[in-house]
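Q: Predict the assembly, please.
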Amino acid sequence: MSPPLGLALRWMECIIAVAIIQGTLELFAIRTTFADDGIWRWSTLRRELRWLQPVLAYRAFLGVLLVRLLAASLLLSGVRVQRFPYSGSRLCL
Amino acid sequence: MSASGIGVLAILALVLAVVAMLPRVEVQHPAIALVRVLIPSWRFFDDISESPLLLARVATLGAPFGPWFPVLPPPRRALRDLLWNPGGNLALACNALVDHLVSDLADFDESGAIRAEELVSYQLVLNLVRSTLAAMSQPATGIRLQFKLAERASTTTSTPSDVMISLEHGL
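A: Predicted assembly structure:
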């Protein structure tokens, strides 16, 4: 990969990571709307989304947001998987 | 970039152009509705219409209802909203919720399979009204509430017409 293209991809990674972090923090800021007495409470949503309970019930959803925040932070920090998926993956800092 | 990479991008652009020119098809299946957030849509403004007003009123036990008041006041805007705007996003989601209820009610009129108050979107709007009233510190004992959707008045002198009026619910 030529250096300019690699640099462009790295910039895209950073921009996407910042957008995800910002969006996730905004969701944390309004997390009460997903709580058990909020607007999008699970007791209402589960009628249509029962199979998504492991990720959309309130506490599970907070966990999903946390994982999303962590993943975006890793992307922003430059952690990447090399040699994936050809011959065993490893994390590089 | 290699010639093969440019070729792939050209093919991708061609596919996108062809897909964009195809006539729009509405897919009503609930499984598709669940993943629609993952499917990009570039036709943002093919159906321009204002969201209806969400109004509510409350009554204490045995007393008549008070006047209708808007549940979703227009959000205040500030420069920092460009970078940090959870309240604005929440207001947008609440308006989308109202639009979703209007859409569901239109489908509901056609099918008539279930009662309107059994719709998930109806329940979510009811949650929204309850949350708003709770935030306004309304007393919670013996309170009844009702909400309605009304089309926005086209002029300052005309009055909004009702799209639907809910049943009475407890707070």
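The longest strand of chain A covers residues 80-82. Chain A is about 65% helix and 5% strand.
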